[in-house]
Amino acid sequence: MLNIIQNINKAFDHRIRLGIMSILMVNESADFNMLKELLGVTDGNLASHTKALELENYIQIEKQFIGKKPNTKYSATKEGRIAFASHIEALEKLIKKS
């Protein structure tokens, strides 16, 4: 018997990581403040979840200065887009089987 949850990606288990990837799939990029506001999370919480996605090579982080203020921008990598699309497909299959 096929395990119906085998293709669900553990990297997207947490709702914040799921939210980050959802935002980055429909936007070319998003900065720290945009993600923080849309997801309603703390600085530390967002930083830890973006770091986890970066370690999986699912997002790319670009740090720069705008004037004298630091700005951190995030974008989904090609690998991240493929992994997230596969994850969503697996969830859809799970829902249809239930």
UniProtKB/TrEMBL annotation:
Pfam families: HTH_34 (PF13601). SUPFAM superfamilies: Winged helix' DNA-binding domain. Residues 16-95 form the Winged helix DNA-binding domain. InterPro entries: WH-like_DNA-bd_sf, WH_DNA-bd_dom, WH_DNA-bd_sf. This is Winged helix-turn-helix domain-containing protein. The lineage of its organism: Bacteria, Pseudomonadati, Bacteroidota, Flavobacteriia, Flavobacteriales.
